[in-house]
Amino acid sequence: MSLKTVLILLGLALATIFALVCVLLTRERSPSTCQHLPPEQEDVEDDKSLVFADLTAEEMSQVVRYLQEHLGVPLVEASRAKPSENCIAWVDVQVPTKAEVLQFLDGDGARPFREALAVLYFGNQPEPNITEYVVGPLPVPVYHRDVTVQRYGGKVPYHRRPVTGREYTDINALIQRELKKAPQFLAACCESDGTNLVTLTTAPRGFKSGDRVTWFVLFHNVAGTGYYLSPVGLEVLVDHGDLHVSQWQLRQVFYNGRYFASTGDLEQEFVAGALEVVRLKQPQADAVLGSMKPRSPPGPPGPLQFEPQGPRYSVRNNRVTFQGWSIAFGMNPNTGPRFFDIRYRGERIVYELSLQEALALYGSNCPGGMSTRYLDGSFGIGRFAYELVQGLDCPYTATYVDRHYLAESDTPKTNQKSLCVFEHDSALPLRRHFSDSQSFYYGGLRKNTLVIRTISTLINYDYIWDFMFHGNGAVEVRVHATGYISSSFFHGHGTDYGNRVGPHTLGTMHLHHIHYKVDLDVDGQLNSLETQDMEYEFVKDPWSRQNTIERPYLRRERLQKEDEAAFPLNAPMPHYLSFVSPSTNKWEHPRSYRIQVISFAGKHLPVSSSMERSISWGRYQLAVTRRKEEEPTSTSVYNQNDPWTPTVTFADFINNETITNEDLVAWITVGFLHVPHAEDIPNTVTVGNGVGFFLRPYNYFNEDPSVDSSDSVYFSSEQDVGACGANPLACLSSATTCAPQLPPFHFGGFLNL
């Protein structure tokens, strides 16, 4: 072998060794690049947030056992209970008073007793009623006290109770019996014997207190698709107010623009040839209006968001922390998501942020549609927040949290993975500047946001509830509506109330109005309300006194009374409206948080309406009142079935009390008018159908707090922008090697239905 060959082989060997060393060194460095970050350090003890925590499944069971053993009356499980029997309707946590909680959180006060609120329907009593008990202390209760009179000023009448699943079952059985009286009509109109038709409830149920008379709309039922788009033109009015199911009656029938006393009368008219019938074929699953089955084969996967070093937030018990934020979260089975003790950089900004109600009010030329005003809290906004689909409802790698509830059952149920938490890269700078003058540099910060999300399916509609926490100390609350529209049978002048979206389907116009409670504590509990807006003044220019300048100036006003702070829906509102603290920032401005509402609400129900007081919160896009323990919510689940004598009337909260240096609450209404159209088939899309509000720091800090973010980017023309040490963005190429191993897809959301 020649010397030249030996040298070549030696060189190749050295090169191979060098390459292997580089690979090994790279592999050694990879774990340090990809290793998960340690959890964020907490500045408040984790377990203190448990003062707000939802009940555990075991606590719910303990409350049920206690009530069964100590009330001294027979209790039937609600899923089986007749109206003439007693049952436990639902159980929720009883949050202690604010004074107790703050003494515990901020002072040296003892931990408040943990208690539950139990709601019972007493149908087996001389005077049937709804009673609310506080039960405690948990986990092993030894006492209960009736708080109904304290909360509502008297017993709650029994007819105000929400309709239970058992009641709907009995109503459907009655309707099926009545449909059998019109066999020839059903065969002609719907290719049906009644068993393939499904009913949809309306609400409220009548026109005066004590009524429990409901229109039910009938649809063709097709497996695997939303029946809401297949009305058959038949609607029935059922009186189900009697305690005894045997006394319930079908009061009236509507078909294709005409009213009949019974299904027998309807059949008689049809047989006599006096009834115009629209002959509908039973829809087929592969061609039904509104099918959501994909029409194209799967394509390549879209972008995937992941955290190279694991989540930068922490979820422990009922508390989330993220880059200075700390939030205690929970879920009311009726009214849905609620948050407490929201802090930024250790300072409480919001004591309570909670959803109060969601109203859907419809128009139609059919009786069911024209009389529908759904108050979704009475159906269960939190209870019907089901399991979220990873990778679609929330990012695949989000943290998913189970929620427990007890409603219409003696056994707690779990909606697995029904709340998600994730950090969202909005692909938008939170702030940035490119300097092309004097000195050349770039500075910016990505808009990464902590998102807490849950989604409620309320019959046909799906509401996506988002609560977002930004790096500049702002809180954003947003709701999107999607799901199926509700529809009426198209007949007559139907297009006066919506758009035709199918051969016989009218997409009925409606409004969505959503109400929130925001108990802001800006630099302490005592706040005032200040407005700022622009005006023009006409002045002579001071340098020549010959020309006029239209100079904008800032008009500030400190509102004194609640009446001044009640801003009617859709009326002009000051552009800047803030909760202000008595203390100031470095620049001698009051430390404040601004409320900024983003809404496209429809018109509120006329005040002359007999049921308007039950939704009187909808009169105002914003109302600020003094906080009171006896005014915990703006509405009640009992308002749905007796809106004519509402159990809670929000308008009564506004009684012109002083709101200067007081503990204040902002009540915010957002919403939009929806006129369904062809593109709402199969589902309403979220694009353009999102509303909400911001809580934004306004002179609360001395500068934008996001300047302290470790995600900040800055580089100048004199730097090597490709160097990882000088520019964090240059480090991202190595982070792509940290793509996570995604867990297998799993969904168990159908198991709890």
Would you kindly provide a brief summary of this structure?
13% of the residues lie in helices and 37% in strands. With 753 residues, the chain is mainly beta.
What order do the helices and strands come in, and which of them pair?
Layout: H1 3-34, H2 57-70, E1 86-94, H3 98-106, E2 115-122, E3 129-136, E4 143-146, H4 148-152, E5 156-157, H5 165-179, H6 183-190, E6 197-201, E7 213-220, E8 231-239, E9 249-255, E10 258-260, H7 263-271, E11 314-316, E12 319-322, E13 325-332, E14 336-344, E15 347-362, H8 367-370, E16 373-375, E17 399-407, E18 413-437, E19 439-458, E20 461-469, E21 475-483, E22 487-489, E23 498-502, E24 505-508, E25 510-520, E26 526-540, E27 548-559, E28 566-568, E29 576-584, E30 590-598, E31 620-626, E32 662-674, E33 690-698, E34 713-716, H9 732-735
Antiparallel strand pairs: 1-2, 1-17, 2-3, 3-4, 3-5, 6-7, 7-8, 8-9, 9-10, 11-12, 12-13, 13-14, 14-15, 15-16, 15-25, 17-18, 18-19, 19-20, 19-34, 20-21, 21-33, 22-24, 23-24, 25-32, 26-27, 26-29, 26-32, 28-31, 29-30, 30-33, 31-32
